[in-house]
Amino acid sequence: MTKEDYNTAKQVALSQGVAIPDRIHFDRGCIVGVAVIKDCVTESDSPWFFGEHGFVLENAKPCAPFPYKGQLGFFNVVLEV
After folding, report:
1. Residues forming beta bridges with residue 56, ordered by sequence position
2. What average pLDDT does range 16-24 have in this prediction?
3. What is the tens place of the pLDDT at every residue in 27-79?
């Protein structure tokens, strides 16, 4: 996340009454939660919707952050047991 991306996200969150921590306090390089993608839409009444497409999520749940190298796009998470 660039500084510009963070500032944009912070303004959107604040406009919805949601305070977010300073950028340096974000967990990065880890997985922080899971959700099911229910749909992909091109319009929505949600104040969180912007851009050409948005995902409708359900059963979103936070988890204790655990390190995981990310990738662009969708990818499978392989957990070592």
Report:
1. 39
2. 90
3. 788 898 889 999 999 999 988 888 999 999 999 999 999 898 888 888 888 87
Which neighbouring-strand residues pair with 37? 57
Q: Tell me the domain boundaries of the chain.
A: 3-67
Distance separating alpha carbons of residues 23 and 13, to the nearest angstrom: 13
Helix (H, G, I), strand (E, B) or coil at 7: helix
In this structure, the dihedral spanned by the alpha carbons of residues 21, 72, 79 and 64, taken in order and rounded to 10 degrees, is 10
Q: Taking the model in full, what pTM does it have?
A: 0.64
Residue 20 CB: number of other CB atoms within 10 A? 13
18 dihedral zone (left: phi>0; alpha: psi -120 to 50; beta)? beta
